[in-house]
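Course exercise 7: structure representation. Students receive a sequence record and must write out the corresponding structure in token form. The form below is the worked example handed out in class, using Oxoacyl-ACP reductase (249 residues). Read each field label carefully; the graders check that inputs and outputs are placed in the correct fields and that the protein name is recorded exactly as given.

STUDENT ID: A-19
EXERCISE PROTEIN: Oxoacyl-ACP reductase
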Amino acid sequence: MIVAKEHNIKKDEFEGKVVLVTGANRGFGLAITMDLARAGATVIMLGRDLGSLEHAYDAVVDSGLKEPILYPLDLEGATPENYQELQDNLLNEFGKLDGLVHNASILGTQMPIEQYDIKLWYSTIQINLNAPFMLTQFLIPALSKSDDARIIFLSSTVGRKARAYWGAYSVSKFGIEGFAKTLSEELEKTQISVNTVNPGKLRTEMRRTAYPAEDSSTVPLPEEKSQAIVHLLSSSSPKINGEQLTISD
Ligand SMILES: NC(=O)c1ccc[n+]([C@@H]2O[C@H](COP(=O)([O-])OP(=O)(O)OC[C@H]3O[C@@H](n4cnc5c(N)ncnc54)[C@H](OP(=O)(O)O)[C@@H]3O)[C@@H](O)[C@H]2O)c1
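STUDENT ANSWER:
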């Protein structure tokens, strides 16, 4: 299903809503954070590095948007105890969670499987697949307290159709597609919906690393597509569940 990239999001559409975004310090995660804060959401910005998160916090606040909450956590090393602490903090502070955007990912390396670096394979699967599983598991209790909770997993074209040399990244995104589908079936009768979104091309560090020879001026900025994610998180958009969505270019 295709989702239009542009939407009219009202200024107070997310008033009273709490949304957690992973990898919120830069790239697509920061663009989503800015749009959510613009719509009045309290955004919990999860990122691995406090300095980088603080820099992003300044960008949000200096733009006159709703003050976000910073949550430094390295998704590669995070333990069940860390996720439990996050759940406790979230429930104590807000009592609920209305949206969860699994955006953080690493590219790993582009290499034949025969030569793929084993340590990098483990890191990529840990950050891109195992961490979203644990984060989701520990945040379901908070999502259950919302009357309309929406989970979005950022996927990729190579998570839906295999392409040679995309290795652990591609496998992690295929895994995310399967995980989201399973979860959407389990939560079908609840008020929590689960979908995957392929954002298509985005002019970010990940894209530059994957396509170093590309003319980046032809690639859409993350800010051009982030409204689509905010629209999907909004209670004013129709609730869908278990779908593979793609943002139009
Ligand atoms: N760019 C594209 O063209 C494209 C296309 C299809 C799908 N996507 C998907 O869209 C999403 C956003 O991509 P992007 O282009 O914005 O990527 P990006 O520019 O590389 O940013 C990745 C984000 O993930 C964070 N991250 C990485 N490892 C982490 C860890 N261990 N713990 C916590 N955070 C970590 C990064 O934080 P640091 O700053 O600390 O590294 C950064 O905030 C990803 O899921 C990607 O797979 C992107």
